[in-house]
Amino acid sequence: MHSSLMNMVFMAVLGAVLFIWGPLSKVADQVYAAKQPETKGYKIEGVVEEGHGGAEEQQVVEVIPIETLLASATEAGGERIAKRCVACHTFDNGGSNRTGPNLWGIVGSPVAARDGFSYSSALKAVGAEGRVWDFKKLDAYILDPKGYIPGNTMNFAGLRKPEQRAALIKYMRAQADTPVPLPEPPAAEEAPAEESAG
Ligand code: HEC
Fold first, then answer.
1. Is 196 in the pocket of ligand 1 (CB under 6 A)?
2. Would the CA dihedral through 64, 67, 68, 72 be positive or negative?
3. 198: CA distance to ligand 1 center in Å?
4. How remote is the CA of residue 100 from the centroid of ligand 1, in Å?
């Protein structure tokens, strides 16, 4: 008797629980169902955003011309950044070639033309075309050495920040017997940098 009474009580309690749990779990389902698309949508958004972000970042990077950045850059700031180069380069007059060539007077100088340095054939080929290291070429090379001149052997990942490259190039320009004139920030004239390279 006792045990069957207990069973009845147990069943009643279980029934009550199920009675309440049924609708409750439906509510839970609805909440979950309502949340799910939200979660999915968010994830997709994140992926799309990443792609957009990358493209936008690149656009922003290219927007400010080197000529404009050079105007506000400081040689002192550039000297600090040049510490990333000194493992392989000297910047002083008569400095030795290391893994890379001495860079005294490099701004405005012909590509791959330092005495006593054995350049890669990739860099020599660029030099053979009569190219000169003007501000724009230096900027592109320091941003991405391997991408700009494939096959060249400068083992440097590149400086991503345009302001850092501008400061560095301003410093490099000053390390010369006669520093070449700074380019005019672009306004009326189209290509003042080309005129001065001669
Ligand atoms: C790991 C060594 C290494 C580092 C670090 C390095 N370079 Fe170089 N760099 C080289 C080598 C090697 C070459 C010659 C490449 C070739 O012959 O293909 C070179 C070439 C160059 C040239 C061309 C010189 C010419 O005569 O045409 C410039 C300009 C230059 N480097 C600037 C820099 C600057 C600025 C930095 C610092 C931001 C830097 N490099 C960091 C190794 C390095």
1. no
2. positive
3. 23
4. 5
For 39, 54, 121, the CA distances from 46, given in Å and listed in that order, are 11, 12, 44
Residues 16 and 84 in one domain: no
- Give yes or no: residues 177 and 93 share one domain: yes
Binding site membership of 164 for ligand 1 (Cβ less than 6 Å): no
pLDDT at position 43: 42
Q: Do 3 and 38 fall within a single domain? A: yes
Clarify whether residues 74 and 24 are in a common domain. no
Determine how many CB atoms are found less than 10 A away from the CB of residue 114: 19
- In tens, the pLDDT along 93-132 reads 999 999 999 999 999 999 999 999 999 999 999 999 999 9
pTM of the model: 0.71
Whether residue 105 sits in one domain with residue 172:
yes
Q: Which residue has the higher pLDDT, 19 or 66?
A: 66
Amino acid making up residue 32: Y
Encode 44-59: b = buried (16+ Cβ within 10 Å), e = exposed.
eeeeeeeeeeeeeeee
